[in-house]
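hi! just following up on the protien thing from before. the input was this:
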Amino acid sequence: MQTQSTLRRNIRCGLYACMALTLFLVEAQIPLPVPLPGVKLGLANAVTLLVMELERPRDALAVLLVRIMLSGLFCGQPVMLLYSLCGGLLSSCGMALLHRVLSRNLWFVSMVGSILHIVGQLVMAALLMGTTLVANYFPILVLFAVPAGVFNGWAVTYVAGHARKLLSNG
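and the predicted 3d structure came back as:
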C-alpha cells in the first residue's frame, strides 16, 4: 500500500507529465523564424528539469518517458520517437548528474542538457542514416540550444521557487 506522500508525489508526476505533453504539443504548433529541423525552445524539457528540482531524478525520468511515449502516440511519427528518446535520455542523465553538483545553477544544468539533447539526436540520426556527416549540423544547433537552455533554466528557477511555496502549503 502506498503512503499518502508517495501517492501525492505520483499524482504530481502525472500532472507534470501532462504539463510536459501540453508544452510539447503547443510548441510543435509554433512556427519558428528559423527553418532548421531540430531547432525549438525545448519547453517540455524544462518540465523534466523542474521535476528533477522539486521531486527526484527518477521521477523526472518517468515524466520524460511518459511524455515521449504519449507525444509519439499523438504525433504518429515513430522516427520522432527514436530521436526524442535518445536525446531525452542522454539529456536527462547528464542533467541529473550535474544537478547533484550545481543545483543552484539551473541555467547551466539546463544549457548542458540542451546540448546533450542535440548530441543524442545526432547520434540517433547518424545511426539511422548510416553517416556521421550529420555531426556537421552540431555547431548550428548549438547556437540555438545554448540560449534556449539558459532561458529554460532561468524559467525553471523562477517556477520552482514559487512551486516550493505552493507544495509546502498543500
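The longest helix spans residues 138-169.
The chain has a mean pLDDT of 90.
cheers
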